[in-house]
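Exercise 7. Predict the structure of Cupin domain-containing protein from Flavobacterium psychroterrae.
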Amino acid sequence: MKTNINFSIYTIAILTFMALIPNNASAQQNGITRTDLQRHDLSIAGHETVQSKIDFDAHTAFGMHAHPGEEVIYVLEGTLEYQIEDEKPVTLKAGEVLFIPAGKFHSAKNSSNAKASELATYIVEKGKPILVLKK
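Solution. The predicted structure, encoded as tokens:
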């Protein structure tokens, strides 16, 4: 009986811990949080759209990465700097937008003392990872 109680407590602890891990834990970095808002199939076969809110604490950056499709960014709050491959960096403030072509490696950084957030809409191939880090 004691073994079953210990097993049950252990199981509850593990399940509770797993419930606290966000579904998109792979997209989390220190000071950066991605919250998936919606995901829908498109009328284009094999494609879907994913919409996420990405929050950047002050002085945080997300390194070079790409997506298996296009990304449309709308800055919700603060100021963010984007670097798309070898292009000149672009700094956007709240209310401004950016289009990132499929497969282009890019990074984002918040160099300010305040929080910044973006709304990212991905138009991507289904079944592929939403994010690929540059090696």
